[in-house]
Amino acid sequence: MNLNPVIFFKGLSDETRLRCMLLLSHEGELCVCELTSALDDIQPKISRHLSQLKQAKLLLDRRQGQWVFYRLNPELPDWAKQTLDKTCSQNQAFIQPNLAALKKMAGRPDAPRCN
């Protein structure tokens, strides 16, 4: 995959999209309802941001019953994966509240986790 750095960084330029990408980098795969809960935001807003990331080819999705799960595009170039991994590992305090909210979420969909 030949990813234009402008497209990649534009995808990360919004805080909601950045948090989604970092949570997906950390967790491997999450459904829209999990991201909604983790980010304490409304589903239409989260879905709009996920759609933008998918259109930029940064994310892939899959349907499992009523759930739509998102994950990082495995074809992201190494530099993009490394940027996300490093940002996630060096900024745990940034996503810690989101991870805590995710952990407390009741009724999480049962899906195989990548992580």
Descriptive report:
Residues 1-91 form the HTH arsR-type domain. GO terms for molecular function: DNA binding; DNA-binding transcription factor activity. This is Transcriptional regulator. Keywords: Arsenical resistance, DNA-binding, Transcription, Transcription regulation. The protein has 115 residues and is α+β, with helices and mostly antiparallel strands. It has one domain: Arc Repressor Mutant, subunit A. It is globular, with a radius of gyration of 13 Å. The chain has six helices and three strands, in the order ααβααββαα. Strands 1-3-2 form a three-stranded antiparallel beta sheet. β2 and β3 (67-72) form a beta hairpin.
Low-confidence stretches: none
The pLDDT mean sits at 93
Number of domains: 1
**In the CATH classification, which architecture applies?**
Orthogonal Bundle
CATH homologous superfamily?
Winged helix-like DNA-binding domain superfamily/Winged helix DNA-binding domain
Spatial shape:
globular
Give the biggest sheet: 3 strands, antiparallel
- What is the number of beta strands? 3
Largest sheet: spatial strand order: 1-3-2
- Which percent band covers the strand fraction? 5-15%
Task: Please give the CATH class.
Answer: Mainly Alpha
Cα-based radius of gyration, to the nearest Å: 13 Å
Q: State the order of secondary-structure elements, H for helix, E for strand.
A: HHEHHEEHH
CATH fold-level assignment: Arc Repressor Mutant, subunit A
Task: Count helical runs.
Answer: 6
Helix/strand/pairing class, anyone? Answer: alpha+beta
Helix content estimate: 55-70%
